[in-house]
């Protein structure tokens, strides 16, 4: 794999319940709404589950995801193709943490930061619409 080893671990607070955060991370329908510009493969189940494999794209770069663990407060995926590594999400009441490690040419820390900010904005918008 071409690229550099990169590691990033970010945690942010947000005014959202543990259940709302979980649903936003575990349901492909919600992921599609806030994960832009990443695109998810079609045909995914209603909720991510251990053993599931799918692909996302950032422009022309494909990233394979294999869900290693999917629980009430943790999602861990093994990454391949555009990123060789892993992405782990952990969350609780009012906070979410993302740990990302891998070898890639993509700027992982920048992408991870933007993703967390988009997630927080999505959850804030969802809360005000209720």
Structure, explained:
This protein has 130 residues and is an alpha+beta fold. It has one domain (4-129): Alpha-D-Glucose-1,6-Bisphosphate, Chain A, domain 4, CATH 3.30.530. It is 29% helix and 42% strand. It is built from three helices and seven strands, in the order βααββββββα. It has helices spanning 18-26, 28-34, 108-129; strands at residues 4-13, 39-40, 53-58, 61-70, 74-81, 84-92, 95-104. Helix 1 packs across helix 2. The relative contact order is 0.26.
Describe the secondary structure blueprint for this structure:
Layout: E1 4-13, H1 18-26, H2 28-34, E2 39-40, E3 53-58, E4 61-70, E5 74-81, E6 84-92, E7 95-104, H3 108-129
Antiparallel strand pairs: 1-7, 2-3, 3-4, 4-5, 5-6, 6-7
Helix pairs in contact: 1-2
What is the compact description of this entry?
This protein is of the alpha+beta class and 130 residues long. The protein contains three helices and seven strands.
Keywords:
single chain, 130 residues, alpha+beta, Alpha-D-Glucose-1,6-Bisphosphate, Chain A, domain 4, 7-stranded antiparallel β-sheet, 29% helix
């Amino acid at each position: 794999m071409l690229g550099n080893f990169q590691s990033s671990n970010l945690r942010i607070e947000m005014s959202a319940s543990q259940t709302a955060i979980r649903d936003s991370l575990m349901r492909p329908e919600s992921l599609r709404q806030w994960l832009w510009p990443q695109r998810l493969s079609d045909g995914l189940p209603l909720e991510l589950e251990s053993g599931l494999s799918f692909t996302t794209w950032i422009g022309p770069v494909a990233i394979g995801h294999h869900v290693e663990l999917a629980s009430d407060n943790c999602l861990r995926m093994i990454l391949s193709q555009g990123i060789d590594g892993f992405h782990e999400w952990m969350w609780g009441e009012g906070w979410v943490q993302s740990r990302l490690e891998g070898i890639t040419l993509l700027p992982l820390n920048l992408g991870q930061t933007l993703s967390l900010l988009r997630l927080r904005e999505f959850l804030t918008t969802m809360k005000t619409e209720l």
